[in-house]
Amino acid sequence: MTEFAAPRKTLGQNFLQDPNIIAKIVGSLSVQPSDIVLEIGPGRGALTELILPLAAHLHLVEFDRDLVEYWRARNNPRLTVHGVDVLKFDFATVLNQVDRKIKVIGNLPYNISSPVLFHLMPYADRIDSQIVMLQKEVVERMASKPGSKQYGRLSVMLQQRYHIELLFGVPPTAFFPAPKVDSAIARLTPLTEIAHPVSDHEDFTALVKQAFSMRRKTLRNNLKPMLSTSQIEAIDIDPSARSETLSVGQFAALANVYSSVKP
Ligand code: SAM
C-alpha cells in the first residue's frame, strides 16, 4: 500500500473517505466510455479511481508534487498528469487535442474555488458539464435568485453562462481530515442557447463587479464611474434599485450599453 505524506493544509487537502458519497459524486458526472474527463485536484484518488475505468481518457491537474509523482508512476496510457497550479493551467492544451466536449470534475480547495470557476469560464462552450464540490454557502450563492440575501456577483457571472444545480450536501464527516464547513456538490451545465448574450465579456465582468462594489447602495451610485442615470433609465431600469434585485438579463443589458458608450 502507498504511504502518503500527511494531508497538506496549505493545499486544502481534505480527502473524501465516504464510499457512498464518492460513488454518488462520480455518478452525477454520468461518464460514458467515449468521454474525456478532466479532474482538478485528484489528491489520493477518491474520485479518480472510479472515473479511470469508465472514461476514454482522464486528465489530472494536481499541484502537490508528491501526488503528481504518484499519478505519473501509474503509467496508464489513458491518464495524463498535468503537474501545475490549476489557476495557471492553460485548458487549451487539453482542448486543442480533443475533438469533443470534455467533462470536468473537482473537489476544489475552498480558498481557490471561485477563481477556478472563473478561470474555466472562457472554455464553457467546450465543456459538457462540470461537477464541483464547494463550500455549501458558495454553491448557495452561485444558484441564488435576485432578491435573495446570497444573490451577488458570483450568481450573476455564473448564471449568465451556466445552468446551476445544487445536487446534494456533503457533511464534514465524509472527509479526512474533516473541514470546518459544510460542503455541497454543484453541477454547472454550460448554456447552449445563451438567453442574455453580452457583447464584451470583460465589460460584463467589470460592470457586475462595479455594481456590487458597495452593497445597499443604489445602482446609480455604484455605476456612476461607468454609466449615467439617463443611460440606465434608457433601458427601463430603475437607477434607484439595488443591484441585488436586478436579473441577469438586466445586468447583461447594462453591460451592453456600457460596451457601446465607453470611451
Ligand atoms: N479529489 C480528492 C478527494 O476528493 O479526496 C482531493 C480533494 S482535496 C480537497 C483538493 C486537491 O486539490 C488536493 O489534492 C490538492 O493537492 C489539490 N490542489 C490544491 N491546490 C491546487 C492548485 N492550485 N492546483 C491544482 N491542484 C491543487
Question: What report would you give on this structure?
Answer:
The chain is α/β, with parallel strands linked by helices and 263 residues long. The chain has 2 domains: 9-190, 3-Layer(aba) Sandwich (Rossmann fold); 201-261, Helicase, Ruva Protein, domain 3 (Orthogonal Bundle). The protein contains 11 helices and 9 strands. It has helices at 19-27, 48-51, 65-72, 92-95, 113-120, 136-143, 153-159, 201-211, 219-222, 229-233, 248-261; strands at 15-16, 36-40, 57-62, 79-83, 102-107, 127-135, 162-170, 175-176, 183-190. The strands form 2 sheets. It has a 7-stranded mixed beta sheet. Helix 8 packs across helix 11 (248-261). It is elongated and about 70 Å long. The termini are far apart. The mean pLDDT is 96. The protein binds S-adenosylmethionine. S-adenosylmethionine (SAM) binds at residues 11-16, 41-43, 46-47, 61-64, 67, 85-87, 107, 109, 112. It is found in: Cytoplasm. This is Ribosomal RNA small subunit methyltransferase A. S-adenosyl-L-methionine binds at residues 14, 16, 41, 62, 85, 107. Belongs to the class I-like SAM-binding methyltransferase superfamily. rRNA adenine N(6)-methyltransferase family. RsmA subfamily. Keywords: Cytoplasm, Methyltransferase, RNA-binding, rRNA processing, S-adenosyl-L-methionine, Transferase.
